[in-house]
Amino acid sequence: PEDEIFLKRLSKGYFVGKDSGAPLFYREEGNKKFQEKDYTVAAVLYSKTCLKDIIRAQTHGYPERLQPKIMLRKAECLVALGRLQEARQTISDLERNFPASPTLADFPSQSVQRNLHHLKMKVQEKENLPETFPAALAKTLEGVDLGEENKQLSNASSSVGLCMDPLKGRCLVATREILPGEPLVKEGAFVSVLNPGELPPLHHSLDSKWDTRVTNGDLYCHRCLKHTLATVPCDGCSYAKYCSQECLQQAWELYHRIECPLGGLLLTLGVFCHIALRLTLLVGFEDVSKIRKLCDEVSNKDIYLPESNSRVKTLNSGLGEIEKNGKIVETPIPGCDVNGKYESNYQAVFNLLPHTENHSPEHKFLCALCVSALCRQLEAASFQAVATGADSSRLKAAAAPELCPDVTVWGVAMLRHMLQLQCNAQAITTIQHTGSKEGIVTGSRQVRLATGIFPVISLLNHSCSPNTSVSFISTVATIRASQRIGKGQEIVHCYGPHKSRMGVAERQQKLRSQYFFDCTCPACHTEVHEMAARPRWEAFCCNSCRAPMQGDDVLSCGRRSCGRRGCAESVRRDHLASRLQDLQQQVGMAQKLLSDGELEPAIQQLLGCQRDAESFLSAEHTVLGEIEDGLAQACAALGDWQKSATHLQNSLRVVEARHGPSSVEMGHELFKLAQIFFNGFAVPEALSTIRKAEEVLSLHCGPWDDEIQELQKMKSCLLDLTPPVGPSV
Question: Could you state, in order of their start, the residue ranges of all structural domains in the chain?
């Protein structure tokens, strides 16, 4: 009881209910942000999509005397969206109805007529403009990704095969030679939950009742993850928001009608618990008996020993091969159906390994506590009636006992899924653009947007040097080959610890603690034998000859034979580490100056940091790359495109040394460099950089990526403005 009371107290820190005083508060706060020219936050606080809200306003009794104003705005929105036929109809309706309505006599007709004439001209202009890059083309490219259907594995290319390895378990291998950039798997999340953000709950007080902080929960649809500044909120809670009325309705029917009153508790318990509930709800509404059957099978320990139980062979009849007593024998592959096909369905999700024996007792206890608290809430809210298909008006109605699953069955299913998620959850990421408010040059960073379950992608084993990359559009993940993969070679993915981001010891520790295995990939095998040499992006260098410093606690120059006196000297590692920490603080201060628009002080600070860094850091050290990138931003803001390009090219060398010439990180940096050359009208350099950026980004993100489309527009503009080469006429 004490634990339950404590959880309830924590949950109250999240204000997820409706409050009649909130609209006025948020409108006033939005006005403040608008005056400060912080338009993104202002739009979130206003929380309105103009066209959709106009339609909702009209159906909720919007005053007739203000109808011309709202109809004009609707027409403007339709013109801006390119929906010209609807715009013409709206203009026609307004022209017809305005003079005939006596209630509109006081409205300034000249103003309406003038605006209508202006809108008609806009419609005519848009009709005469050629379409530059049709959205349909991107959709067409999206639809033909995988080519021939894979008869063994859903959502996968025919070049991918499913195998059973005696040591690794299930794995994916190439059935033919695969070229770089080739799409291998394209799978929608079986279930996904938007990460609420890293902001802590507010405490009870008059000053903090309503939260004006902006998180991903305010910027993305809670169902399809589409980016939107003006969301459609749930009618029952203030937390769930959607990109459209359609998404709101679908979410409500599938799961949100149960989740809606549990918002505070779900935010307290965390995303994994939320996914476990939503997963169970999605399957439960389709077939409650399936969960009962599968949960019954969990209680049979033989489910983990496929060779000993015929029931499991029926459930998982996909076949793999292992060597036993010198003979190759066929074994069931967990998750496959009776025909041996692995589908992206609940059966596949259920067969993802929970690693029950590897989790600590403390972790298992906390998972069980979360599920127990959630089950008690569900039970108290007449969950059984809803689970059998009752609509919201029958929540309190008693359902027939034979149709009501025991809440314990749901709890067992949710607990299994929570244990699965630590090793099988996939972070759904997006690229968020950063840069100056003027938007002259934009950078980008990858952020974790949501967490999802992808049954097919979960089959990929880990490598610290993978041969694939993943990109996301909404809730759909696409796996592409990032290098040539030979026939029979395993297709591998990175679970997070990558050789370009952390050393082998740290990678091994993270993989062992979260995924319960010791990584033996080629990158780890090589680095274990070369642990004395630090990566170039972390290395210290000799102040005299710039050679790398070597050693453990005491470092000395690796080029002792060069004959210079300084090279014979040694220095303690902790001394250099302290200098590095001080330097990083100075760089942080310079970046703050840069973000505040104090360009000249930022440049002077960065130049000082650069001189200090070059005296003891390798030329490819990450901090030197950050300094060069900051200088590039400052010079771009001042319009000195040539200097900006020089600094960014220096930063690019650091990125290439760390991540490789064909990495997605390199693609994003090339995109920035292309913008610099474009703005400086350095045409040959811009076209060359655009081509390189397109090649790299297409490899990882596909041809419909936002940055690639922007590069194509830049290229088209440059080619249009470049005079033809040849004899004059």
Answer: 48-128
